[in-house]
Structure formats: C-alpha cells, structure tokens
Amino acid sequence: MKLFEEYQQAEQRRLTRRHFLRSGSLGLGALTLSQLLGCGSGPEGGEKSLTAGISHYAPKARRVIFLHMAGAPSQLELFDYKPALHKLDGLDCPDSFLEGKRFAFIVGRPKMLGPQARFRQHGKSGAWVSEYFPHTAEVVDELCFLKAMHTDEFNHAPAQLFMHTGSPRLGRPSMGAWITYGLGSENANLPGFVVLVSGNSAPSAGKSVWGSGFLPSQYQGVQFRSKGDPVLYVSNPDGTSRDIRRGMLNALDQLNELEFQEAGDPEILARMHQYEMAFRMQMTVPEATNIEEEPAYIHEWYGTEPGKNSFANNCLLARRLAERDVRFIQLYHRGWDSHGSNEFEALEGGFLKRCKEVDQPIKALIMDLKQRGMLEDTLVVWGGEFGRTPMRENRGGKVAPFNGRDHHGEAFTMWMAGGGVKAGMTYGKTDELGYFGIENKVHVHDLQATILHQLGLDHERLTYRFQGRDFRLTDVHGHVVQDILA
Amino acid sequence: MEASADWGLFLGRFHPLWVHLPIGMLIAAATMEILGRRKRFAYLLPATGFMWTLSAAMAIISAGLGWLLSQSGDYDGSDTLAWHKWSGIILAALLVLVAFFKQKKRAPKAIFPLTLLSLGLLTLTGHQGGELTHGSGYLVRYAPHSIKQLAGYESTTENILNSRIVDIEKARLYEDIIEPIFAANCRACHQASKKKGGLRMDSFAELMKGGKNGPVVQAGLLEQSEIFHRITLPEEDEKHMPPDGKRPLRSYQQDLIAWWIESGAGQKTVAEVEVPAYIQKILDEHIVANEQGVFDLKVEPVDESAVLQLKQRGALVREISQDMPLVQLSFVADSQFADRDAALLLEIAPQLTWLDVRHTELSDFSFLEKLPHLSRLHLEHSQVKDQHLSQLTALPYLEYLNLFDTDISDAGLEQIAQMKNLKSVYLWQTKTTEAGLQQLRESRPDLQIISGLQVDKPESTIDS
Asked: Nearest to residue A124, comparing CAs of B460, B98, B312, B359?
C-alpha cells in the first residue's frame, strides 16, 4: 500500500500544469472530433445473442417469405387489367403522359402498348389475373393485391435497394436484417435470415440487398443454394473431422476473446457468433435443405426437381425453412426485365418463361403453408422492385424487335398473403391506363412499415444509433396500411 | 396556392416565439430582486432597475404581437383567450409600474410584493398560452391520475374513447360512434379554446353551427358537406384535414362519417337508421366491443426459475411482446422433453399462451386442461389421441388448433365442435373421414377447417 501511494505521489509530482493542459485539451478535442465524425459510435446491439429480441406488441405474423421478382414483372400483363389500353394499342403516347417524366430508356414519343395477355376474374373475390398465371389465379382468395404500389426509383439496383433497405443508396441494413435484429431467431441452429436466389444470376443490386449495413454482421442474410453444397464453405474440408473443427474453433474463440478484451470491437463478437452458427449449421443445414426426402406428390405439386437451381426448389426449401422457424426467408428470381430489346427481355419471350417458372410453385407454396396451418402466421409477399410503362419501349428512338415496356415507378402491383392480412382483397386502383395510382396508393415505405407491423414491430421504434443518429428501415416515412389488416 | 400577405398575421405568429424573452427577463429581474435582499448579493440591486425596464419593454411588444395573433380568428371567443389576453396585459402594465418605481426610486416597500405578484401572474399567463397552443389538458395528459384530479382535469374525452359499445342497436349514432372519431382526431384544434377556422367540434350544437365559412355539415347531402370534402381530399392537398403531420382518418372512419351525414347527420340511434352491409361490417369490426381476448388478461410476470428449468430441457420460452407478460413456448429440434417433465409447464400456466410441442416425446396430453390461457396450440406431428381433445374443450381462449399428421379421427371432431372460441383447426393427414368433416362443417360454420390440398376450384366468372 505504502509503495503504491508513494508511486502515485511521484507520478503527480511529474505532472506539470503544462502536461495537464496539453493532454486535457487535446484529449477533449479528440473526443469531440470523434463524436462529430461519428467514428467512435459504438453500436449498442453488438453483444445481443441471436435469439434475443422481442416484439413491441403481439405479432400476427411470426415469419416472412418475400418472393422478389428481380427485374420488375409487368403488372399490365399479370394483374392490373386495363381494357382501355387495348384501344390505344399502337397509337402515339399523348403529351400529358410525357411532361416532366423521366424514363430509363424511352426517348421522344413512344407508342402505347395494349395488354399482351387475356384476363379473367377469379375466385369469390373476383380478382383479375391474366392467363399467364393460371395457378396463382386458383389461390386469389388467399391473396391481398396492392394495385397502386409506387416507389421513388426507376432503375433496378437503386429500386431493389429501396425495396429491401428503405434507401436507394448502399449501406443500409436490409429488411431481413432489421427484423432478425429486432425479433431475434426462434431457432438457434439456423440463421434467422436466409436468402435463396434463382434465375440466371444474382439481383442487380448485388448482395447488398441482403446485407446488414451498419447492424452487427450476424444479422445479414445467409445464402442457401438448392444446387450443390447448400451453404458455401460450411462443410469441413476432406480429412477434417468435427472434433478437430471443434478444437480449432475453441482455440480461435480464445484468441478472439483476447482481441475483444483489447480492442472492444463488437464485430469480433459478431464473428465469433458466426463461427459458432456455422458449426451448428454443419449439422442442421443438410437436414433442413434435403428436399429429396419430401414425398413424390409434394414434388409434383411444386414442380421441383431436386439438384437443380430453380424457383420451385427454392419455394419448397422456403417452406421447410419456415417450418424450422427461420424468421425471414428471401427469394429472388431474376429475369423479368422485359424491355423488348431481345428475346430474353421480351413479353412474348423470357417473360412468359418466367411466368411458367414461378406460377405453379407459388400456388403450391401458398396452399402447402395453409394445409400445414402455417399461412396464418407466415406473411408471404410477392412483387418486383417497380412496375412497367403502358407505353412500348423505343430504346434509341427505334422500334424494338420484341414487345416490351420500360421501367415505371409510379404504379405497380404487389400482393401479400397470410400473416394477418385480409385474404381475397384488392386494395388500391390505378387510372384507366395503369399509369398512376389514383386510389389507396401504397408507397414502398408503407409496405415496409406494414410488414414490420405484422411482426409486432413498430417501424418508428425499431431504430439503431449509428454515426450520431437513430436510423430506421423506413427512415422518416411510412404509414402502416391499416385497411388491409384482418 | 399562395396565401396572400398579411402583415398583422405574419408578425402575430412571432408571438409564441417572442414571449419567451420577457419570461426569461422577468425571471432574471425577480431573481436578482429577491437575492439582492441578502447582503451577499446586494451587488445585484443596482442592475435590477435596468432589468425591470427591459422586461417591461419586451412584455409590451409581446402583448402587441399577441393581440395581432388573436385577430387571426383561430381563437375567437374562447374564455381561455380572454383570460390570457387580459392577464398578459395586466402583467405588462405591472412590469411598467415596477420599472417606473425603480427608476424614480419610489415605494421601495412595494417592490417585493409586486415581484412575487408578477411571478404568479407570469405562471398563470404562460399556462393559458400553452393551453391555447397545444390544446386544453396538454400539460397533464400523461400525468398520474391523482395529479390530474388535483389539477381538475378529469377528462371526459378519454371516457368516451374507452367506453365500448356492447349493444350496437342502442348505440347513438353521433355520441357513441362519430363523436369519438372527432374527439380523437379533430378536437385539439377545434374546441372552445382554439377554434381553427372558427369551427368548434366539442359539442353537437357547436359542430352544426359550422365555421367562419358557414355550416360544415349538410344533413343528407354528402357532396355539400365541407367536413366530408376536407377529410377525403388527397393527403398532399393543403386543405386536407387533419392537416399535414397529423394522422389521416382511416377509410372506415371516413365511411362512418359519410354514413352519418347521409342518414341525416342527427342524433338518432343505430336502430333508427338504415345500416348498409358495408357499414354493418365496419361496426362489427371496429365499433362493437370484442369479447375480452387473451391479450387483455392481467397476469403476473413469468416465474424465472421455472423458465430456467424449462430451458434446460430444450424449451424456447419467449415473451410474446414487450407490453404483456404472456409467453410462447416451443422446443428445439432434438429436445428430450417427455411426460415426466410436463408438470414444469404448469408452473408457467398463467402466462403460457402459445404452445408448440412438435419436437417433444410427449404422449400424455392430460396436462393441457390445466393451461387455461392457451390460444394457439401446435400438436401437429405429435402422438395426440382423440381422447386428449376432451381436455381442450374447456379452454376458453383456444383459437388455433393444429392436428396435422396425427391419429385424430371423427371421434375427435365431436370434441372440436365444442371448442367455442376456436377459429381454425388443421386436420390434414389425420384419420378423419369426409363424412365426419362434413358434420363438423355443418355444426360449426364459423370454424375454418383445413383438411388438405384440395382447394375449391374457383369458377372463372367473367371473360375479358
């Protein structure tokens, strides 16, 4: 004790006023600067365990399956029936449609393009569905159509980011990340946020649409594949046993723990979480993703072919993951960008193929969830990142070789099913030509607010402090669409 | 639309900003005056004269600006306005008097009592101003009940909002259905103390008088009724009500208001007017009191030691939400939870609301009877038998029952028919027969019965 006091006194004697002023003022300055620049903003959620989290109020839905049609399918060929557009087919687009409007590709004065599909009303609800979706048409009484959706963006990557992260620019957490951050997982052995991609490539916005942004990285989406190894780099290399793996992870954990003590970076904890999760997933993933064990009639129903990368396989996989209480299951199916500039991008070409690829699995998914008693608490959401114009695209001022439509953010159709949303409902209306919403418009932020609401999350209270300000999925926007809630 | 310039109103709107200057200065002057009476602070005294003069000048400007603002007509004729106006003017006059005494060094004995008086008057005036700006009762809205009573605010609006209608036929159209909508959404700005647009909505008679542009409700004439026009304008329209930043009325509320106007905008009861089907639906959904649901139950927080024991046996126990202590319980995939552990569940019986026993080895389900608050019960893939279902008939809150992939047969369906509160039951891959299901459908038309893949193939009605 004596020695320590002596040491302290000696120390204090060496501290001159000059020392004090220098370290004091510089220290304060540096502290303020780091606050101002937002460098030192320690995220508060870093040490949360994966299963922690709780709803603000009693939830209607406990999980979400989001079927994103990347590339933006044409609402005018699927759900938004516009007989008036038939009459204008091939005529010049009126001035009033072009004033002050910016298009991705249309230049000058395009021609109008009538509906390319035949429509019928279906089910007790009398919802309009085109001949391209004969299977979906059978389950319309389970769906709630949002006919007057609108977004702020008219190019794929920003619009996809906007749909999934609430902002058209990179860096924000995606909806699945927000939700698993807010609610935690109900299954500690699988990720709370799983992503399944089909179609010819990943969505144009890249992996950022399922990123965790500034949230701790254990909340980012984990991509599962229906072809080959279900999760890349999770299985042990040849010759490595599970015991050896465990031993290695234990040693790594100790090193990481030391590093965390020293640096205090919550990302180190996130990394440790993820190693542990990957280890558990070595056991759980092969079982969860083994769609081959499903009976033959289920395969026939979904139109699945095990071992292939297809939307059908992913739908079946989504149901299996939902049964295992995965919180947010995000499907992407790409190839809907029907400009008409080549066969793949044609309404009479690639678009038809895409419709065939998704139609039957969608019906199967909805009905399968329903017969298992899961549709009540699983919210299924379908839609693209924006809609398409009632005008025919004329890229470069030339007549396109195929029928196609340009990007259009002001009006498009999405639908929701289950999860406490009214079944057999059509909400919102577009004008005679499907160009603008005229009744009960729903903005992307409103959709996001509604999805969170059904999970028992208040979109205004689900916040995360980063760089000196509280962030939300819906930023400062969004109203819950109360009228569609059951 | 550009509002035309109005200098009086432009300046008047600076009143709520400017008033804070005399408030601060008066408090400073009074503090200096009071402290200055002690020797230690006597050095403050010479400056007080200046402070009083400055406060008086600022108070006069404030009063002037306030007078300009009162000319806007938004606050016309309210008692609060009169009180605020006169107490403000008296306060300004009082400050001038004190400043005068100070400058002329007269009546030194009167200064202290006048200081206290001016502080009291300031509090009063400030509070009245707050009531005008934010609406009456703003200050104590979230105060504990006892303080509210003390302050004389036993709010009547909240009683209206909370009173639930049980017999819809006897409900009064205006008082019970329409007025609560107005009270919650419009009244903050349309009442005795703050009559925006000259309109008061705090009583039926005042509402019928209308605003400065005449009546806002035309009985039976929806199109001519300004109130309906304004609430149904597009949200981005400047004239949309409630104004920007306030929550717009929900469409069912608009429908109710339209229905009320069309049926004469009177004070009849529901039984006396025509009720279209879509209104009946709204009334059922939003207006008639629901039976008490399980989420309205008041129970104690869950016993943590029981939760810990359950977790050790592979249970996942989570509170359903932050605002209540009810819990949901499921089991991890390889849980060894079996009959011998069932007693543990009873320890959290009051809180246990959602139960999922898919991943357990339970074979005896007689404990379910002792879980009175169950509302969602997952028994799919379990060893549940027909005889266990009789345990469930007494559960008052049970809404969801999943029996998919079990040995339940038609005998069990008879039990299901007796579960009064049950809303949906799942029976795919059970031993039930079509005849049994049909019987259940007939005895319980309200129940959603899902028994398998076959969907009623919807008929396509109209060709394009």
From this structure: B460
Cβ-Cβ contacts under 8 Å, B244 against chain A:
none
List CB contacts (< 8 A) between B332 and chain A.
187-189
| Closest CA–CA distance from residue B254 to any residue of chain A (Å) | 12
- pLDDT tens string B277-334: 888 888 877 777 655 688 888 888 888 899 999 988 889 898 898 888 899 999 877 7
Read off the pLDDT of each residue in A442-469 and give the average, rounded to a whole number. Answer: 94
**Token representation of residue A365:** 């998914």
What confidence score (pLDDT) does residue B245 get? Answer: 67
- Tokens matching residue A451: 């999805």
Residue A473: closest CA among A63, A166, A161 = A166
C-alpha angle A382-A411-A143 in degrees, rounded to nearest 5: 30
- Separation between Cα atoms, residue A339 and residue A406, nearest integer Å: 6
pLDDT digits (tens, 9 = 90+) for B109-140: 889 999 999 999 999 999 988 888 877 777 87
DSSP per-residue codes, B65-115: HHHHHHTTSTTTT-HHHHHHHHHHHHHHHHHHHHHHHHHHT--HHHHHHHH
Nearest to A121 among B378, B404, B462 (CB): B462
Instruction: List CB contacts (< 8 A) between A54 and chain B.
Output: 318-319, 321-322
Phi-psi region of A198 (alpha: psi -120 to 50; beta: other; left: phi over 0): beta
Q: Tell me the β-bridge partners of B402.
A: B378, B426
Q: Which of A444, A431, A441 is nearest to A97 (CA)?
A: A431
Please name the member of A121, A368, A479 whose beta carbon is closest to the beta carbon of B460. Answer: A121
Contact (Cβ atoms closer than 8 angstroms) between residue B65 and residue B116: no
Q: Between A55, A137, A440, which is nearest B322 by CB?
A: A55
Q: Considering only CB atoms, which chain A residues are within 8 Å of B357?
A: none
Which candidate from B316, B323, B450 shows the least CB-CB separation from A373? B450
Q: For residues A293 and A279, what is the distance between their CA atoms, to the nearest angstrom?
A: 23
d(CA A484, nearest CA chain B) in Å: 11
Report the distance separating Cα B180 and Cα B155, nearest Å.
Answer: 13
Q: What is the DSSP letter of B285?
A: I
Give the pLDDT mean for A346-353.
Answer: 94
DSSP A117-174: S-EEEETTTTEEEETT-HHHHHTGGGEEEEEEEE-S--SHHHHHHHHHHSSSSTTSPP
Three-state DSSP at A67 gives strand
Residue B244 CA to residue B260 CA, distance in Å, equals 25
Tokens of B184: 């919650």
Answer for the pair A134, A119: CB distance below 8 angstroms, yes or no: no
CB contact under 8 A, A483 and B400: no
- B378 Cα to chain A: minimum distance (Å): 9
Cβ–Cβ under 8 Å, residues B368 and B395: yes
The residues near A398 (Cβ < 8 Å, ≥ 6 apart) are: none
Specify the amino acid at residue B324.
M
Q: Which two tokens stand for residue B135?
A: 């609406």
Q: How many CB pairs under 8 A join A and B?
A: 99
Chain A interface residues (partner B, CB cutoff 8 A) = 51, 54-59, 81, 83, 118-124, 126, 137-141, 184, 186-189, 284, 301, 324-325, 367-368, 370-373, 376, 440, 456, 479, 482-483
pTM of the model: 0.71
Which of A126, A284, A371 lies closest to B461 in CB terms? A126
Residue A180 has pLDDT above 60, yes or no: yes
CB contact at 8 A, A397 and A111: no
pLDDT (0 to 100) of residue B2: 47
The answer to whether A216 touches A46, Cβ cutoff 8 Å, is yes
